[in-house]
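User: Hi! Is it possible to get a structure for several chains at once, not just one? Here's what I have:
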Amino acid sequence: MPEQSPLDLADGDPFGPHNLPYGVFTTADEPDRRRLGVRIGNRVLDAGAAAYVLGSPYAVLLARPSLDPLLAAGRTAWRDVRRALTAWLTVPAHRQDVEPLLHPLDSVTLHLPYEVADYVDFYASEHHATNVGRIFRPDGDALTPNWKHLPIGYHGRSGTVVVSGTDVVRPCGQRKAPADAAPVFGPSIKLDIEAEVAFLVGAPSELGRPVALGDFREHVFGLSLLNDWSARDIQAWEYVPLGPFLGKSFATSVSAWVTPLEALDAARSAPPARDFDLLPYLDDSAEEEPGGFDLHITVAVNGHVIAEPPFSTMYWTAAQQLAHMTVNGASLRTGDLYGSGTVSGPEVHQRGSLLELTWNGRDPFELPEGKRTFLEDGDVVTMTAWAPGPDGTRVGLGEVTGRIVPSVVQ
Amino acid sequence: MPEQSPLDLADGDPFGPHNLPYGVFTTADEPDRRRLGVRIGNRVLDAGAAAYVLGSPYAVLLARPSLDPLLAAGRTAWRDVRRALTAWLTVPAHRQDVEPLLHPLDSVTLHLPYEVADYVDFYASEHHATNVGRIFRPDGDALTPNWKHLPIGYHGRSGTVVVSGTDVVRPCGQRKAPADAAPVFGPSIKLDIEAEVAFLVGAPSELGRPVALGDFREHVFGLSLLNDWSARDIQAWEYVPLGPFLGKSFATSVSAWVTPLEALDAARSAPPARDFDLLPYLDDSAEEEPGGFDLHITVAVNGHVIAEPPFSTMYWTAAQQLAHMTVNGASLRTGDLYGSGTVSGPEVHQRGSLLELTWNGRDPFELPEGKRTFLEDGDVVTMTAWAPGPDGTRVGLGEVTGRIVPSVVQ
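Assistant: Yes, the chains can be modeled jointly so their relative placement is included. Here is the combined structure:
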C-alpha cells in the first residue's frame, strides 16, 4: 500500500504501515536511554517522542523505557494507540513532525522490550511430537495418550529469555549414553534449536478466574518468533520424570519486535481437523475467529535455509493454550510469554529442530562449511517469517538470531 | 537468651533476637503503605522507621515496601543489617526509641515480602521419590536412573506463589482414570499438599557463569516454609512427557517470614551418605559447612498434626540444587525461589504429602471431622517448623497456612 505511506517505503515492504511492530531501542548517542520504538520499513519511530510532538494523550504509554505499560493497558488502548501510530506514519500532514523522529534500523540497539513474567513452553505440533516420540521412545506409541486431549506444556526459565542477537554460550551439563556406566560432564554435544512462535500476554487475569477461548484477544497483545535452544544430550538424561530443565534453561531467544495481533487479522487460519471431541473449555469449533495463524517460518544456519516450518499446521491454537493454562485458576500477568512449541510440518524440510531434521544425528545435512548434525561453535541460527497481510500484502515478523559461542569449560 | 532482650520475651521464645526473620506488613490505619518488618516474639518491628529514628545508613535498604532492595544488596549488607537490627532490639539504650515502632503481630496484615522471579521446584527426598515411584510406577524401579546423579527439578509458576493465609480455590482440570474411555473435566478430587522448604535468592549471578557449591551463601539470603499444593488427578493425566503443569500451577503458598541463613548456623547438618560418587560440581564431601539443615517440620490439618517431616533427611542439599540449576550457565535473579521438594522421612508419620500418607487414597486417616484421603473444602493446612539455634535455643520458622475453598465450577 505505498499510497498510504509518505515514508518512501519500497513496494510491498513487509514492515509497511499495515504491520507496525513494537520494540525498545537505544541510540549510540544515548546508550542508557531506552525508548519505545515502532518499526516502519528499515527505520524505527521514536514513539514516545512522536506522542509528545503530536500532543497525543498516549504519551503516558509510549514515552516509556519498556512496552510493559502499554501491555498492561488492555485491548482498547492497544487499538487506539495503533490507530494513532498509523495516522502519524501515513497522513502526509504529519510527515514534517515524524520524519526527524525516525532512526535507521541499523543505527540503533534493540533490547528485550518487556519484562518476562512467567514463561511457558507448549508442545503443539503433531508432526513434531510424533517425530520426537519416534526418536526417543521407539518402542512405544509416538504420541502419549493425553496429547490430543490437552495442549501439553511446562514452565521454562523466564530469567534467561534473551533478545535476538544475544550470543548463546554452549551449555555444560550431565549426559549419559545408554551404554555409559555413569554420567559424564561437559559441554553439550547435541546443541539444537526449536523454531517457535511466542505469544505475549498484555492484560492480566485474576487468580481463580479461567480465561475462556473467546477472551484470547482481551489478554494476548501480540506474537514474536522464538528459538527455544535445547541441549538434547542434557535433556535426554534429566527429563524423566519431571520434564526438561537444564537442557532448556540456559537461553531462550526472542525477536526484538512484537507484532500486534491486529496486524495479523488476514493471517488467521483454521487449525487441522481434531481427532477427538474436545472438552468444552478447549472446543473452538464454534469460535467466530479461526484459532490458527498462517505464518511462514524460515530457519537458516549461517545464512543457508535448512527448514521452512508452516505454523498453520499446529494442532493446538494459542487461544486453546491460554484457556488450558488458566483453566485451573492460574492467573496471568503482564509479560507472561508462552511458546507454541516447535513448529514442524509434515514434510522433512518443514521440521523445526535439528533433532528431527537429522533424526537425532543419524542423517547429517550439508552446509558449505561442512556437515552438520547439531550446532557447532560459531554457527549463527536465524529465523524469519511472514504472514498474509491486508490486500495482498505481507506482514514481516522480526527475526530471531543467535550465535553459538564456546563453553567456558572445554 | 532473655538477658539479651529488653523486650519482655518469654523464656525460649523461638522468635527471639537470635532469629529475626524478615517480612512485609501493613497496618489497619494505613492499608496501602507496605513496610519492611522484622519479627521479634509476637511483635513486628517497623524496620524502616527504626533505621530512620536511629540514624542508620541502612534506611536506604529498610525503608522500602519490599525486601527486594535488601535481597539484591548481597551478603555483606545482609550481615551488617542483621547486626544493626540485633543491636536495636537488644541494647537497652535503644529501648525507648524502638518500643513505639513495634506492632503486635496479630494487628498487622502480612504480604508476600518479595517479587518472585523464577520459581523452581526440586524432588530431593529419597523417601518421597521412592514412595511416589512405587505408587505411580509400581512395575518399574521406584527411582529413575538419574535420581542419585543429579537433583531433579523443574520450573513452576512464579505468578501464583501466594503468601501464607491466602485461600486456595480447588482447581478444575482434566483427569482420566485408566478405565475411563476419555478424560473428564471438573474440580480436582485428589487435592494434596507438599511440605517443602523454599530457598530465596538475593544476589543475582551472570548469564553463562555457574555458581559453585561454595558460593551458596553469597547468593541465597534465607529460607521459608512452602506448601506446593498439588492436584494429583490433574497431574497424573498431564505429566508425561513434559512434567507437572496445571496440577501444580494454581497456587503455591509460602510463609510471610523469611528466616536469614545467618540465624541457622547452629542448624547445619550433614546430608545422608551418598550412594554414588558425584560429579565434581555436585561433590560436597570437602565443603567446610555441612549442606543440610536440621529443620523439624510439623504438618497439621484443621489443627491436628498429621505428619512431622525431618528436613535433615533430604538427599540433595540446597547448595547442590543451586550449583546444579546454574551449571548450564543459567543466571540467577533477585527473588528467584526454589523449593526443596516434598520433605518425607523414612517413617510413615514423617511423610510430607497426603499421596504418601494415604498411599494414594488407599489408607485414609482419621480427623475428628471425619476420614480423609485428600483435602476437603474448608480444610485448613498449616505447616510450622523449628531448628536448633545458638546456645540451646530454638529458631522458629514462620508458618505457612491455607484454607481450601470450593471450586467455582461444581
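Residues 345 and 393 of chain A are 24 Å apart (CA to CA). Chain A has two domains: 2-111, 119-405.

User: Great, thank you!
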